[in-house]
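ok posting inputs for the nicotinamide-adenine-dinucleotide job
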Amino acid sequence: MSLSFTYVQRERTLVFGAGSRQRLPEFVDQLGMRRIFLVADPNGEVLARSLVSQFADRVAVVWIDVRQHVPEDLAASARERATELHADGVITLGGGSATGLAKALALSHGIPIIALPTTYAGSEQTTIYGVTGNRHKQTGSNPVVLPRVSIYDAELTLDLPPSVTGASAFNALAHCVNGLYSTGANPVTTAISLEGVRAIRDSLPAVMASPRDIAARESLQFGAAMAGITLGDTSTGLHHKICHVLGGTFNLVHADAHSVVLPHSTDFNAAALPGEMKRLADVLGCQPRDVAASLWDLAKACGVPTSLAQLGLGRENLREVAARAAAEIKSNPRPATEEDLLVLLERAHAGTRPISA
Ligand code: NAD
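and the output
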């Protein structure tokens, strides 16, 4: 990798620590929020209301209609409400779906976001937004949607069910792995990616064994934040395009799709990425040729989905997924035709362990 590169540091604040949600009023003041649009995951509504109780007079609405991939009609109705209420800021408590809706509002209304993430999607660290209509997820990038403050309070994640925890952590892992070789990767993003892999690799098995292990949850959140930064600072490629089709067109759960596809997208690209596989192997504690298999083993050990069949996707749909994804891929370490993607998807559908190269 050349040492001639540009890294743009974005204006954002990350706050870590158990109990750090107590600092929310400080940031609400700092950003001058007076008519707050509070977006809360339905499973976190009670918690969200308690978080804002100290400044309830500034909360214009508590919005709990949150859906993954931000359907167009949902974005439209939230935007209409934000206009009626003259909202001047958004606070989110939830996963990538809550953050995604907040981003739709930031994009249309130019208002700042404070995010309190409760999953490991990492969306709160990216300038990427997405809206889905007509079976197609349309994404874009704009600095206005990057949350100004992200508060990582692991106490907010203690009740996240294992089924969401494992897959969501794999979503973060996918950002880190892909961040190593996506367009825009540079020595800073590489360091961030590897640190993210290390944190997730070290903490995920502990969290799955003891979901209320606060130290392990903190480490997992740190890994997710690194994942979000690297995703936002590089770009998306083959892996993400496949996952976006699986989610946007076939409505598979976003994090589950990432979990299943990651070992196979890594396997597909491994031969073209010897340096990256070596770095990953060092962190994962395996041989470079075993990186994809090692990711699959980690998924199995953590009870994370490993097959598209298990997620309910019929085999007859694989051709459409391959065709749609192939049409969207702009760059990849090795050429990827529709036929290549079909082979990759067949393996992901069957859930077979990638064989060492
Ligand atoms: P999610 O936000 O839909 O949450 C997953 C599940 O976890 C939901 O059932 C939710 O109710 C539950 N949940 C969340 N917090 C909880 C808590 N504290 N306790 C109990 N249950 C809780 O899923 P996600 O994987 O976080 O996000 C997926 C969405 O985010 C997708 O639409 C994806 O495209 C988007 N995303 C965007 C980016 C980006 O950079 N723009 C990055 C990653 C993901």
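notes: The first strand starts at residue 13 and ends at 16. The chain has a mean pLDDT of 96.
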